[in-house]
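Re: that backbone. Tokens:
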């Protein structure tokens, strides 16, 4: 009976040690993967992919054109009125807002450009 107790205890220690070693190795690789994942994130905490960057760039260009048009037409500042903005993805809308604001600010202050007197 004493021998059976020693075998059971020894086997328990061996299994616990193997489990701790395996958990430690898996934990370090997970930590490395998470560290890499956080380094690839932008300021909002999202992972940038090519598609997200493409959508944001496209939204910026569309927003810039829409903002310029609204500034020249003496419309109020409202990027939300555009149908493209309403049905765009999150990244597209972020780019659209940035482009719209930049163009509206630039061309609303330089209205003479429309009539050939600016620049």
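Recovered sequence:
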């Amino acid at each position: 009976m004493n021998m059976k107790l020693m075998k059971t205890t020894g086997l328990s220690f061996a299994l616990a040690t193997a489990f701790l070693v395996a958990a430690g190795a898996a934990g370090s690789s997970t930590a490395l993967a998470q560290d890499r994942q956080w380094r690839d994130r932008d300021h909002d905490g999202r992972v940038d992919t090519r598609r997200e960057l493409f959508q944001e760039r496209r939204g910026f260009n569309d927003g810039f054109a829409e903002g310029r048009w609204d500034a020249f037409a003496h419309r109020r500042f409202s990027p939300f009125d555009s149908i493209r903005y309403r049905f765009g993805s999150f990244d597209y809308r972020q780019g659209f807002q940035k482009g719209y604001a930049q163009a509206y600010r630039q061309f609303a202050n330089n209205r003479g450009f429309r009539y050939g007197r600016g620049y």
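The chain is about 70% helix and 0% strand. The chain has two domains: 1-39, 50-112.
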